[in-house]
Specification:
With 376 residues, this protein is an alpha/beta fold. It has two domains: 255 residues, Alkaline Phosphatase, subunit A (3-Layer(aba) Sandwich), CATH 3.40.720.10; 103 residues, Gyrase A, domain 2 (2-Layer Sandwich), CATH 3.30.1360. It is 31% helix and 24% strand. A hairpin with a 3-residue loop joins strand 3 and strand 4. It comes from Amycolatopsis acididurans. This is Alkaline phosphatase family protein.
Length: 376
């Protein structure tokens, strides 16, 4: 089976550098055609795929009516990697946030959303300091150094999280609780303190996981997202920009394989990480060839299965993979196709029960919108 290669689209990691360039920071490249502005907000709507927005445009007429083009998010198509792309301006092979969970040498498998040992282990903020796991300067730090005010508007509960430290340090944090204060805080920043603002909305992704993308519940939530965008666009001051993006799309799971209960599939496997649509498989010494053969035989055409080196050569993790990041990638990498999910019902009972999933290389997961609105 031939392995897919990156889509011929701009990458999510290009968004913040392009916005900062539009704000006058000459050290950043402008690659997306963004016009010069006095202030800008990048609003990331978790789980808003390009194909989903196209299909359900009637539920989001304001957002769908903006000038928009598709971006690719890179592999894995998951929140941790997407937020890191926004927060560093590079792809996963450089920022190293290689999945929902991934192995950090010397610390074990890290759940990067909760920053604990996976599954269900102790806090890892001392053994795997966020600033060490992701040591690159963030786009917020670089914006501040360039003389641009950088603000993060996100849920109050994430203010002191390890993931915030890893990929959003350097920005003034404004904690919010609902759509109303999210919109108001964005407008406050753009009105009173011209500069760069990043804002985050998580609930479309949550509803998609629980009920499935495209369901009535998901469409009702998309309508709320559209009202959020409308509230900001209608009050956008002259010379300001709202750029709406996402970290990944989503698919409905129709067929699963329980990795914990499949005979022979874990032979020679030291540990597993990733998520249902994007698995890292870490092999025992000398067992990679056997593990690769077993996974390819079991998955068939339900997943692309590659060695670490094959996946890197195919460009899954971006144009560059650092020596620090390389061992975080599984010896074998499996990316689901169609509506397939590689679940672990014993080790990951909650995650395994989710209807909507993401992480892989399909266009439904990879393509997200870049929608632009300029204040007049």
């Amino acid at each position: 089976m031939d392995l897919p290669t990156p889509l011929n689209r701009p990458h999510l990691a290009q968004v913040v550098p392009s916005v900062l360039a539009a704000l006058g920071a000459r050290e950043f490249p402008e690659t997306l055609g963004i016009q010069p502005v006095a202030g800008a907000c990048v609003l990331l709507v978790d789980g808003l795929g390009w194909e989903l927005l196209d299909t359900y445009a009637a539920d989001a007429p304001v957002l769908a009516g903006l000038s928009r083009s598709p971006l690719q998010v890179g592999y894995p198509a998951t929140t941790v990697a997407g937020l890191a792309a926004i927060g560093t301006g590079v792809a996963s092979g450089e920022h190293g946030m290689a999945g929902y969970t991934f192995e950090v040498p010397g610390a074990g498998v890290l759940n990067a959303l909760r920053w604990c040992a996976h599954p269900g282990g102790p806090d890892l903020r001392e053994r795997a300091r966020p600033e060490d796991v992701q040591p690159l300067p963030t786009t917020f730090e670089r914006a501040t150094e360039a003389g641009i005010t950088a603000t993060v508007v996100s849920e109050a509960q994430f203010r002191r999280s390890a993931l915030t430290r890893a990929v959003q340090r350097g920005g003034r944090y404004v904690g919010v609780y609902a759509l109303g204060d999210l919109a108001a805080s964005v407008l406050d920043v753009l009105t009173e303190t011209p500069g760069f603002c990043y804002a985050y909305h998580s609930q479309l992704d949550q509803v998609g996981h629980l009920y499935g993308p495209g369901t009535t519940a998901w469409r009702m939530q998309l309508r709320q997202v559209d009202r959020l965008v409308e509230s900001i666009v209608d009050a956008l001051p002259p010379g300001r920009l709202l750029a709406v993006v996402a970290d990944h799309g989503m698919v409905t799971i129709e067929d699963t394989l329980d990795l914990d209960a499949t005979p022979g599939l874990l032979d020679g496997v030291r540990t597993l990480a990733g998520e249902a649509r994007a698995r890292h498989v870490y092999a025992e010494d000398g067992a990679t060839g056997d593990v690769l053969a077993a996974w390819r035989a079991e998955m068939g055409d339900r997943a692309w299965v590659a060695t670490r080196e094959e996946a890197i050569a195919a460009g899954w993790f971006g144009p560059k993979v650092s020596d620090t990041v390389r061992p975080r990638i599984g010896d074998v990498v499996a990316a689901a196709r169609g509506g397939f999910g590689m679940v672990r019902r014993t080790a990951e009972p909650i995650e395994s029960g989710l209807i909507g999933q993401h992480g892989s290389l399909t266009t439904a997961e990879q393509l997200v919108p870049l929608a632009l609105a300029y204040g007049r």
